[in-house]
Specification:
The chain is α/β, with parallel strands linked by helices. The chain is built from 12 helices and 14 strands. Helix 1 packs across helix 8 and helix 3 crosses helix 7.
Length: about 375
């Protein structure tokens, strides 16, 4: 059996090597390394794939979130509601812009932000909601958008882990994540479902005016060279990464389907164990692209399982071991930690297994057997 990787980027590259190498060579030949043809071509292809009017490429996913927030012209002290159980970048950019992060608990099934907790957290200072499509599972966007509309709030999707997933509205309409809000941000970090070979990100919106404003922000606030109309940043997607992403975008649906197949195989092998809760998924699984396959280990030693798997050369991860409300950088003595019962439970139970489009059935069976052997 091939060595198990948490993410097998080498095998993925081997499959598309001729196309990727050719795309990189074209950039090297035309020497348009910043904002070259490859960037515009990738932008157009991604707009068509998502069904969104505007894709604004940028340097990384964290920048994408920050720039999306900058585009909404919020004022220092304005409150932004987001999930307590997620990666720190989401709350990091809120704090960097002198906005006030308001953390709320998550749904125990999906791990995504709890709409009821959003409602309870709204104050006169609330201006925006950032739902995170955590681990590739779409948040309850119809309910979140209804709350936002009622209270006149912006919605910014953190789509760093969910690209390619679809949301099904109650009337049967489907739409891709990243198109379900005022503005969305994504990451193309190498391990993502659509990953570059370095840092990269993008912002999505259907709002023409907002898109124009954001295009200036990403390029030092310039709409005309050396004329700085707004305060901006230097966050541009370089042409080599764009060329790579354009090739990989052609395979995104394939990558996501392979991840779903692997997830279903894991679930079939693990779902009936009394100490395991397998990931929730709806219907035909369009709403989950399994950036991570994350179990809950209940009434047993999760950390002991991590150690056991590592000893058996099975990589795994704990995403995330500390809730944001307990992180040193974001501690607030006024926060009532009892308001996060789900998050406080999840951080002691979750474990993410190897998940990528190159996983084989024998690897999944071996991993599952080892997990059950430890728990039994």
């Amino acid at each position: 059996m091939k060595k198990i990787q948490m993410v097998d980027l080498k095998s993925q590259y081997d499959f598309i090597q001729p196309q990727v190498n050719k795309a990189i060579e074209e950039v090297m030949t035309n020497t348009a390394f910043i904002n070259g043809p490859a960037v515009h071509e990738f932008q157009a292809d991604l707009e068509a794939y998502l069904g969104v009017k505007h894709v604004i490429p940028c340097a990384n996913g964290t920048d994408a979130l920050q720039i999306a927030l900058m585009g909404l012209k919020l004022e220092p002290g304005d409150e932004v509601i987001t999930a307590d159980f997620t990666f720190a970048a989401t709350v990091e950019v809120i704090s960097l812009l002198k906005l006030t992060p308001i953390l709320v608990d998550v749904d125990p099934k999906t791990f995504n932000i709890d709409p009821e907790a959003i409602v309870a957290a709204i104050t006169p200072r609330t201006k925006a909601i950032i739902p995170v499509h955590l681990f590739g599972q779409v948040a309850d966007m119809e309910q979140i958008n209804a709350i936002a509309k009622k209270h006149d709030l912006f919605v910014i999707e953190d789509n760093a882990q969910g690209i390619g997933a679809s949301y099904t509205h109650k009337d049967g309409r489907k739409a891709k994540t990243g198109t379900l809000s005022n503005v969305a941000a994504t990451s193309f970090f190498p391990s993502k479902n659509l990953g570059a070979y370095g840092d990269a990100g993008a912002i999505f919106t259907n709002d023409d005016e907002l898109a124009h404003f954001i295009r200036g922000i990403v390029n030092h606030g310039m709409y005309k060279r050396y004329y700085h109309d707004v305060v901006g940043v230097n966050s541009r997607l370089d042409s080599i990464q764009a060329a790579i992403l354009r090739i990989k975008l052609q395979y995104l649906d394939y990558y996501n389907e392979r991840r779903k197949e692997a997830a279903i195989q894991y679930t079939n092998l693990l779902q009936n164990h009394p100490n395991i809760i397998t990931p929730y998924r709806e219907g035909d699984c369009d709403s989950h692209v399994f950036h991570q396959y994350t179990l809950r280990i209940i009434n047993h030693d999760r950390d002991g399982l991590v150690k056991f798997l590592n000893e058996n050369e099975i990589p795994c991860g704990v995403y995330y071991p500390v809730p944001l409300h307990q992180q040193k950088a974001y501690l607030d003595p006024e926060i009532d930690t009892s308001k996060f019962p789900v998050t406080n439970k999840l951080v002691n139970e979750v474990i993410s297994l190897p998940m990528h489009s190159e996983l084989s059935i024998d690897q999944i069976e071996f991993i599952s057997q080892k997990i059950k052997a430890y728990l039994d």
